[in-house]
Amino acid sequence: MKRKSNSLLYYALACAMGATLAGNAFAGDASAPQGEPIKAVLTAPPMVPPPITRSTPAKVIVDLEVVEKEMKISEGVTYNFWTFGGSVPGSFIRVRQGDTVEFHLKNHHSSHMPHNIDLHAVTGTGGGAEATFTLPGHETQFTFKALNPGLYVYHCAMPPVGMHIANGMYGLILVEPPEGLPKVDKEFYVMQGDFYTEGKYGEPGLQPFSLEKAIDEHPTYVVFNGAEGSLTGDNALTAKAGESIRMFVGNGGPNLVSSFHVIGEIFDKVYTEGGSKYQENVQTTLVPAGGATIVEFKADVPGNFVLVDHSIFRTFHKGSLGILKVDGEPKHDIYTGQQSSKEYPQGEPAGK
Ligand SMILES: [Cu+2]
User: Which of 13, 247, 306, 314 holds its CA 20 to 30 A away from the CA of 124?
Assistant: First the structure.
C-alpha cells in the first residue's frame, strides 16, 4: 500500500515536472494571446497609433480596406490612387512582438481590381499575399504571429506588382519589442514614393499611370505621404523646441532608394533599415525601396526643418519636400542666425 502511494506521488511529481518542461520548451503557453482580442488602432499619415502599454501578447484584429480613389498628387494635378485604408501611404499598424494578428483585408465594392497584401512583418508564404487574394466587394482573412520586432513595409503584391505599388499600395507596420520603444514627445509617419504619370511634372488634371516611365525608372513625382505638399504649409509637421521626435520613415518605391535627410538637424539615433540596433549621430540615411528606418532627434532650436530626399533634384523638381515646424524661444548658444552681412575689401580670389 505504502509503495503504491509512493509511486503515485512520483508519478504526480513527474507529471508536474513534465508540464513545466513542456511549458518552457514551447514558449507557446507563456506567449499565447492573453485576454480579449483587441482591435488595432489604425491611423492615416502623418499620425501614428499610440504606443502599446501591454506587457503580455494579445490577439490583435486588423481590419484594413482597400479603396481606389482619385486624389491630389500636386497642385492642380490628380491621380487614381489605389490605397490601403484610403490614404497613401496606407494606415499605420502597430502591434507587439508575440502578438497573434488576425488580419482582415477588404476590397471596396467600387474597386476595379483584385488586391492582396504582403506584410514584411509576416513569416509565411508571400507575407500573406497568397492568403489575401481579394476581389472587389470581398473580404479575406488570415492569422500570423509577429515573431520579429521592427518597422516593416507592407504592400500589394497583385500582378503587375510594380503597378499596384506605383499606385500607392504600401504602408508601414511596427512590431514593438516587448519592452516597447523609449518614450518620446512626438511620433510621425512619413513614407516616400515615386509616381509615374503620362503628363509632365505639373501638367494639370487627372494624370494616367505611365508604364513606360515606370519601367524606365523615370518618375514624374517623388513625394512624401502621397502628394507634393502633404507635409508643407498647413500640413507641416509641428513640434516645440526641446521635444524629442521619432519619425517612422518608409519607402514604398516602387523604384527609388531614398537618401533621407532633415535639413538643419542631426539624427541622434537611426534604427538602420528598421531593425533593432541603432547607429548614432547620422546626417543622411538610406531607405531602400520596400524598406524603412526609424530616426530620432531632439528639436533643440526653433525653425523650419526641411525633410528631403537628398538626391536633391527630386526635392526641388519632383516634390520630395516636407517641413517640420518647431516653435519656441531661440537658443543662441546653439544657433545664432545671421550675425553680420557686409562687403569686404577686394583682392586676389582665393586659390591663386
Ligand atoms: Cu493591389
Answer: 247
Query: How many Å lie between the centroid of ligand 1 and the Cα of residue 116?
Result: 6
Q: How is residue 303 annotated by DSSP?
A: E
Beta bridge pairs of residue 323: 306
Three-state secondary-structure class, residue 104: strand
- Verdict on whether the full-model pTM lies above 0.85: yes
HEC-encoded secondary structure of 166-188: HCCCEEEEEEECCCCCCCCCEEE
Q: Please check whether residue 68 is in contact with residue 108, taking contact to mean a CB–CB distance below 8 angstroms.
A: yes
Cα distance between residue 57 and residue 97, in whole Å: 7
Which grid cell is 141? 482573412
Other CB atoms within 10 A of residue 76 CB: 10
Give the distance (Å) from ligand 1 centre to CA of residue 305.
34
10 Å Cβ neighbour count for 130? Answer: 13
pLDDT tens string 117-164: 999 999 999 999 999 999 999 999 999 999 999 999 999 999 999 999
